[in-house]
Write the structure tokens for this entry.
Amino acid sequence: MPAYRFTKFVPPPLSEVSFDALLDVFMQLLVHTSGDVGEALHWLNVVDREYNLTSDEYGMGDFIRDLEEKGYIRRSEDGDGMVITPKAERGVRRRSLDEIFDSLRKSSLGNHNTPYAGLGDEPTSERRGYQFGDTLEQIDMTDSLRNAQINHGLNNFRLTEDDLEVNEREHKSLTSTVLMIDISHSMILYGEDRITPAKKTAMALAELITTQYPKDTLDIVVFGNDAWQVEIKDLPYLQVGPYHTNTVAGLELGMDILRRRKSANKQIFMITDGKPTCLKEGARYYQNSFGLDRKIVNKTLNLAGACRRLRIPITTFMVARDPYLQAFVRDFTKTNQGRAFYTSLQGLGEYIFEDYVRNRRRRTR
């Protein structure tokens, strides 16, 4: 029987210590520490002692100095520590996009393609005859004049409707998306960090929309005991709180936001790991963490049906695999006629990418 001897792994020495290499690690730590520069630098020092990220020529003090000189961190207003700058916030979002949506960097700017032809931004190589309602800009005058010459000759030249050819254009759709993120206490229970992948996915999606699909809109809603809207710049600082899960409040706020959006395509993405456990009734909270409370569940399902009637599909990304929770999500999805993914934390970003970019649920009218 073969025998194996295991020894401690000693990584090879780094050939060159660079600011960019340390910056990648620092940006990752910023997400885990919710934008706390002091804590991120503390953990970077711990990693440095374990894996020798720095050298005698370029030490941690040099890196911190460069961070400040290059505009990634600055002194806080009270002078009692360092905070990240808007440049660092954009850098975190960009790295999240590169990590989760790497294949998007080769795609073109624009909106979402649909399988329908019509008025749009992108001309194609296809030609067709003129139809009532086509605009003057769509008519290919060169081909239309050639058709007239062929059909009527030079001596009796005239241009008729039957001679006109139209450039086919690829139809484009605008999409308004609300991304709901569960920040209840269960997102960090059982020794599993679920909020960090959720934040990274939200930042990647925000960077994707602002750069690749600039005409689309993305609104971020977080929900615990209550629900509130956060700005894209606030995403690195999101933290889990001592909250129950008020899915109803999140859906109500998401629906209210989408009602004000003018685009025809509207959708809700919801990242959660648990069941709804909270309702707000006037000034008090009705809470029940034990099992599926029918009072809370019925209210949640009623809102799922209301979203369906408003043509707002809900895609639920469930980062838990408890059978009874999955049964609730199936009922919720059936009521809304939306979709659900029971995903691991590692695959969360890829699932959302596929669902967002390949959104073919409806035709924009």
